[in-house]
């Protein structure tokens, strides 16, 4: 590896997708990285992405990207069902890996990938970038310092944006639960990871999961697609600290509140709001009230919670760049700040417990994260 980390991105379609809207702009803004290769399933689209962003190598075969000597870090940014295959290939080649969340299509795949990553001794990260968001870092810091006193409870209502009454054809795979890209796994996984990162893991939980819609309208064809995944998730439980927690996650967008998250302590309250429950990618407003009868006021975010001072574009690339900055430090200095495959498995275990709770109607006990 040279003094810059060479990145190869699998799944960099030039016209759409998270790779070109978030990963490449984030990486281009960070001096520690250089995007050196991209691959898609068709050479024409890989070439188009390479030309658009000035990337030296383009491949239609992901094996060629993974094995290229200029690539130090492989980024897997494709649909969930292919994560296991592609991450396994990259790990077996001895490359560092950044995989989009969810890590696997279910807990078993995620656990297998974690075991292989540890066996290969490489750095690994998962795209739970809400942990790196400045607002989430500030919340975690406030709670750790005891600024709110003892945390009594936390509650949230959040909308998932997708998984509503309509969707485009490219996104229709989200409505088939077998693909592992569900309301629970994506916005649910991101939000619950941010909550647990700030407040600690769940000790026990109960859940209700329902599919209230039977089909969705395809916005680009006016056809319909079956709705084969839950669009309503209600969760309640107790954290390891004793904090009582609840979440109602809804598919689509509400005409009213789309994100309201409160954290209530003996000495103060936090209120977090935003345009949807995707805390990993939307702008969040943080307000605080401390002291009896004190009003809520906006809380500025200190510069120390910005992992990078680079000119990173706002919107989708920002928190991704925050995570990449943590991963660069891990790779170059041997630290472990970025959320890795261990963190991913912990979150998969929690999602698995939520599904069991809903299916069996029994309260589930969880172990503390290592």
- What's the shape? globular
In the predicted model, the low-confidence regions spanning at least 5 consecutive residues are none
What does the main sheet amount to?
Answer: 9 strands, mixed
Q: Helical region count?
A: 9
Supply Rg.
20 Å
Q: Give the helix/strand class.
A: alpha/beta
InterPro entries: Gal80p-like_C, Gfo/Idh/MocA-like_OxRdtase_N, Gfo/Idh/MocA_oxidrdct_glycsds, NAD(P)-bd_dom_sf
Protein name: Oxidoreductase
Keywords: Oxidoreductase
Organism: Chondromyces crocatus
Explained architecture:
The protein is of the alpha/beta class. It folds into 2 domains: 5-128 and 312-338, 3-Layer(aba) Sandwich (Rossmann fold); 131-305 and 347-365, Dihydrodipicolinate Reductase, domain 2. Helix content is 32%, strand content 25%. The strands form 3 sheets. A 9-stranded mixed sheet has the order 17-16-15-14-7-13-12-9-18. Strand 4 (73-76), helix 4 (83-92) and strand 5 (96-99) form a beta-alpha-beta unit. It starts with a strand and ends in a 5-residue tail after the last strand.
Supply database-style keywords:
oxidoreductase activity; Rossmann fold; EC 1.-.-.-; 9 helices; Dihydrodipicolinate Reductase, domain 2; nine-stranded mixed β-sheet; 370 residues
Question: In short, what is this structure?
Answer:
The chain has 370 residues and is of the alpha/beta class. It is built from nine helices and 18 strands. Helix 1 (18-28) crosses helix 8 (316-333), helix 4 (83-92) packs parallel to helix 5 and helix 6 (134-145) packs parallel to helix 7.
Give the arrangement of secondary structure elements.
Blueprint: E1 5-10, H1 18-28, E2 33-39, H2 43-53, E3 57-59, H3 62-67, E4 73-76, H4 83-92, E5 96-99, H5 107-120, E6 124-126, H6 134-145, E7 151-159, E8 166-167, H7 184-199, E9 202-210, E10 215-218, E11 224-226, E12 232-239, E13 244-250, E14 259-265, E15 268-273, E16 285-290, E17 297-298, H8 316-333, H9 341-360, E18 364-365
Parallel strand pairs: 1-2, 1-4, 2-3, 4-5, 5-6, 7-13, 8-10
Antiparallel strand pairs: 7-14, 9-12, 9-18, 10-11, 12-13, 14-15, 15-16, 16-17
Helix pairs in contact: 1-8, 4-5, 5-9, 6-7
